[in-house]
Each structure stands twice: as C-alpha cells, then as structure tokens.
Amino acid sequence: MSDDNNRHRLESSEGVAKSGIDTATDSATELDAELSALCDGELSVESENQLRSRIDGDTQLSERFAEFASLGAELKALEGPSVPSDLHARLQAKIDASDTNATPQPAKPAAATIRWPLVAAMAAGLAVVWLLQATLQTVDPSAPQLADDRAIGQSTELAVAAVADAPTQSVTETTSDDWAGDLSDDEIEIAFELETLLDLEMIQELDLLEAMFALESEQGERG
Amino acid sequence: MSGADPDAQHMLAFCAGEDSAFDLLFARWSAPLLHYLERMVHDAATAEELVQEAFLRVYRARDRYSADAKFSTWLYRIGTNLALNELRRPRRARPHTSTDADPGENRAPLHLVSEGQDAADVLDTRRRTYQLDQALARLPERQRLAIWLTAVEGMSYAEVAETLEASEKSVKALVHRARVALVAGAAVDEAKAKKVEEPIGCKA
Questions:
Q1: Of the candidates A111, A1, A36, which has an alpha carbon nearest to the alpha carbon of residue B174?
Q2: What is the ipTM of this complex?
Q3: A12-16, A21-25, A95-99, B74-78, range with the lowest pLDDT
Q4: Angstrom distance (rounded) from CA B11 to CA A91
Q5: Most C-beta atoms within 10 A of its C-beta, which of A88, A100, A105, B123?
Q6: Inter-chain residue contact B175 with A98, CB threshold 8 Å
Q7: For B29-65, how does the pLDDT look when each residue is reduced to its tens digit (9 = 90+)?
Q8: Per-residue pLDDT band at B196 (split at 50, 70, 90)
Q9: Which of residues 127-146 of A touch B (CB under 8 A)?
C-alpha cells in the first residue's frame, strides 16, 4: 500500500514537473510570439506597455526583441529584380490580345461571303435545269433525256450532266429568230437567263458548285 | 474602405473608364509585386510573367471590382494565388539553391566598395544578406509569404490573413515561426561561415 502511495506520489510529482516544463515552454513561446507581434505593431496599447516594461528589465528579452526587430530592415534591404522597361508594353500586348479575343467576331466572314452566292448560283442552276425541261418540251418535244421526268428525280449528278448536255441544244433552239414567237414570256425569260449564265460560264461550274455545296453541307452536319 | 485607400480610388477611376489610372497602379505596384513574386518562385522571368498575369486580371476585373479591401491586399492575393499555383505545377523544376550560386543573379549589379567604407564591413553585410536570403528561401511557403507581407510590405495581420485566406491567429503564428526560423537559420549560417574562416590549427 505504501509502495502504491509512493508510486502515486512520484507520478504526481513527475506530472507536476512535466506540466511545469510545458507551461514554462508554452509561456516562453507565447512571450516570443508577443515579441514578434510587438515588432509588427499588432499589440494593444496596454499589452505593448506591459511587454516593453518587461523588455527593459530583461537583457535576454531585450536581445531577442532586437534580433526580431532588425529582421524587418534586413528583409527590406534584400535586393529584388528591377522591373524590365518593356514589362508594361508586354502587359499592354496581352491586354490587347485579350480584348481582341473577347470581342465577338463574325464567324468566318470570308466563308459567309462565298456561301450565299454559291448557294444562289446552285439554286439558280438547278431551277434553270428544272424549268429548262419544260422549255425544251415546248420548243422541241423530241429533245432527249431532258424531257424525261425521271431526270428531275434523279441525282444532282445526273441533273448536272443533263445541264451540260442541254445548253447546246437549248441555246441553239432559243437563239433562233423565231423563238420569241413560239415561247411564252416565262419561257423567254428562262431561256434568256440560261444564255446569260452560259455567257458567265456559270453553268460550266455547276459540278464545282455541287462539290462545294456538298462539302459545306458536310461541314454543317459536323458542326 | 476606398475613401482611405488612394489605390482603390485609382482602380475605381479605371473602372469608370479612366485608362491612365490603370497605368498609375501598374507604375506604383509592379516593382514591389515583382520583388514579392520573385521571392516566392525564385525565378525573375517567371515572376515577370506572374506580374503581367496579375495585372491582366486586375484589368479584366474592371467591370466587377468593388473596393471592399485595400487595392494592395487584393492585388497581392491575386499574385499569391498565381505564385502558389505556379509552385504547385508538377513540371516546375525546384529552384537550385547551391551555395555556389550567385545570390545577386538577376539583381542590381555589385558596386565597387567606396573609399569611405571598410571592406570587411561591406563583406560582412553582404554575407549576412546572403545568409538571410538563403534562410528565407528555406522557409515553408506560407511562412515566407506571411513574413514578407508583414515585415516588408507592412501589411497588418488582418490584411495578410485576407491575402492568404487564413485567420489572424494563424498569421500571427506563421510570422512568429518565420522570424524564429530566420534568426536561427541566419545564426547557423553565420556560425558555419566563421568556422570556415578559422585558420587551420587554431581553436577558439
């Protein structure tokens, strides 16, 4: 029993001693932290006055405070890189690039410029093909494949091929002196348009237009 | 807040369309920010890029800026986040801290010692500066940020807390640890230097 008491007493005294050391350490660390805060002007007036009184009466504390206090000046004295003279210009270039990217731009203006005339030309060409059939039927009922309704429903490729064949005949037909007498106003207009297109060599470009149109459609589907 | 902070006033003027105010802010803050960021990333070229990026963000924020805090606190927070992101990039090479490296690299050139100065004093000062430089570089990031912002930039703990997105209590602890480490680190380096200087065969 006495052994137990002694052990208990010993443990208690060790605990007190250990606790005392911890408290002292904590207190020293806290005091050190207060010195640091004093350097930064972060203490209240009351705390600052108390701490300064302690510093005045304690050489070690005074030396420690001096070490901390001198650090600020030494850190400020560390040389840094000088600002390059072109840094502002480089920043301005980045800002300009940023502004350019941020401004909404019309999507592919060049493509947009090209697309509509192409589509219009394509549509006009196909319309001419379709209307030409009726014209040729009137002008020359014996005209070959163009008179065949199947040509309308066939692929564009066939239609383009038909157009390539047709002008020679139709122009021959429509440029005769009497065509005006035989054709209605609409047919005359169509024939005239066809001739104009031929003059502009647009009909010959139909296969190219078709290819471009198909390509654009394909791109549109991907987009 | 903006009423007491002239930089915030400049920023508000810039937001109102006065472009020259942005130039004023750049002229005022580019050098200290560059110095701060160079201390963080240990590379002048990278620090320059980060300064540009920070001011680019300031420029872009002109439509939504509100002067809730000091301009400098806001700017340094942007810079700090950029620097921390830079330091966390996996492909970033760690800075070489060889003692053979020139501590004044990318900095102002060394000047010859003037006649009025004692050469030994100048060398001591330079050595001390170099040791402090090395000790600063060895600090953990947040301690380095905290001590720099407090001791060099003169920010309050509250401002540093806002910049680092930490509590004031944490900042107080970070600054204190940094001071202790810098004093101890510089002291160790000083002791090493003196040991090297001791003539062979002599004992103190």
A1: A36
A2: 0.76
A3: A12-16
A4: 17
A5: A88
A6: no
A7: 999 999 999 999 989 999 999 999 999 999 999 888 8
A8: low
A9: none
Q: In angstroms, how far is the first alpha carbon of chain A from the final one?
A: 92
Surface-to-core class of residue B97, CB atoms within 10 Å of its CB (0-12 exposed, 13-18 middle, 19+ buried): exposed
Length of chain A: 223
Sequence-distant (6+) residues with CB within 8 A of A122 are A206, A209, A210, A213
Long-range contact pairs involving A86-89 (C-beta distance under 8 Å, separation at least 24): A87/B30, A87/B34, A87/B48, A87/B51, A87/B52, A88/B23, A88/B26, A88/B30
Write down the pLDDT at residue A161: 47
- Chain A closest CA to B201's CA: distance in Å? 32
pTM: predicted TM-score of the whole model, two decimal places: 0.58
Which of B176, B182, B183, B190 is the best residue to mutate to test the A interface, defined by the most A CB atoms within 10 Å of its own CB?
A: B176
B110, HSE (Cβ side, Cα atoms, 13 Å): 10
Residue B15 gets the label, from left (phi > 0), alpha (psi -120 to 50) or beta, of alpha
Q: Which amino acid is at A45?
A: V
Decide if B26 contacts A91 (C-beta within 8 A).
Answer: yes
Buried b (16+ CB within 10 A) or exposed e, A56-90: eeeeebeebbebbeebbebbeebebbebeeebbee
**Cα distance between residue B114 and residue B107, in whole Å:** 20
Question: B75: how many CB neighbours lie within 10 A of its CB?
Answer: 25
Question: For residues A80 and B34, is the Cβ–Cβ distance under 8 A?
Answer: yes
What pLDDT, on a 0 to 100 scale, did the predictor assign at position B91?
61
User: Token pair of B25, please?
Assistant: 């802010």
CB–CB contact A91 B48 (8 Å): no
Task: Yes or no: say if B86 and B159 are a contact pair by the CB < 8 Å rule.
Answer: no
Enter the DSSP assignment of B148. Answer: I
Distance CA A133, CA A136 (A): 5
Decide which of B128 and A187 is more confident.
B128
A vs B: CB pairs below 8 A: 97
Q: What is the Cα–Cα distance from B154 to A41, expressed in whole angstroms? A: 10
The segment with the largest mean pLDDT, out of A15-24, A172-181, B47-56, B119-128, is B47-56
A84: CB partners within 8 A, 6+ apart: B48
